[in-house]
């Protein structure tokens, strides 16, 4: 069956759909000897698909969790030779890519997989997948600051979406506030910028949850495959996110159709009323 190449690349576990688009744009993918372009499709059963001269083949889906330390990049490779989260995996692990990114200085949970469809569901900005972080910020955060953080903070690229603030604690010995912050969006360095705008710079940031998946006691720098229960939970959650997004999209499209229908009906009534007003009246006087 023919499918878009970025979907086939993601299904083969070589990249997320977004990264697959970059592979296509850079000319690294060939179909039957011809350089493929973004938007091209192919049939994996009938066409020869090459990525960097290697034949593309579907790989069994795999899901791993990593506890990324600070100073590690959330990427598959780095031209400058810096450590990457993929480098934390054991040598015999399948070829995986990270789902989303954590900042260089941020620690915590990273999901690695070769399931492009699930990765897309967990990352799509309109699907609203939750990410929970343990934040350590300098200073004693006021009630007003915590309320502003929950409502949204205005940044140079626009206000942040409302967030959930919980488990707030102030450590007098170190002069720091610790809290848990749950977001449904993932802008670049969003938490650090928001706390800095409020006057409480972040000292440490750890992601402790992604959707239903929790970091738990996994040691910093360690990795492991998901348990069967975790895998089922992640796949079910991704399906729910897609279903919710499809329902919201259908509702929005239905509302748009209803508005267009109402507007057309109003125009038709207006035209009918106008035609009636323009129709000449018969004179009652004899000629």
Short description:
With 287 residues, the chain is α+β, with helices and mostly antiparallel strands. Helix content is 32%, strand content 25%.
Write a structural description.
The chain has helices spanning 5-11, 17-25, 116-123, 143-151, 190-198, 228-278, and strands at 3-4, 29-31, 34-35, 41-42, 49-51, 54-55, 63-68, 97-98, 107-113, 131-138, 154-155, 158-159, 164-171, 176-183, 202-210, 213-214, 223-225. With 287 residues, it is α+β, with helices and mostly antiparallel strands. It has 3 domains: 3-55, Roll (Structural Genomics Hypothetical 15.5 Kd Protein In mrcA-pckA Intergenic Region, Chain A); 59-128 and 217-260, Pseudouridine synthase I, catalytic domain, N-terminal subdomain (Alpha-Beta Plaits), CATH 3.30.70; 130-210, Alpha-L RNA-binding motif (Alpha-Beta Plaits). The strands form 4 sheets. Strands 7, 8, 9, 10, 13, 14, 15, 16 and 17 form a 9-stranded mixed beta sheet that branches. The protein has a 4-stranded antiparallel beta sheet with strand order 3-2-5-6, with no helix packed on it. The protein has a two-stranded antiparallel sheet with strand order 1-4. Helix 1 (5-11) packs across helix 2 (17-25) and helix 3 (116-123) packs across helix 6 (228-278). The protein is flat and about 95 Å long. The protein starts with a strand and ends in a 9-residue tail after the last helix. The model has no long low-confidence stretch (mean pLDDT 88).
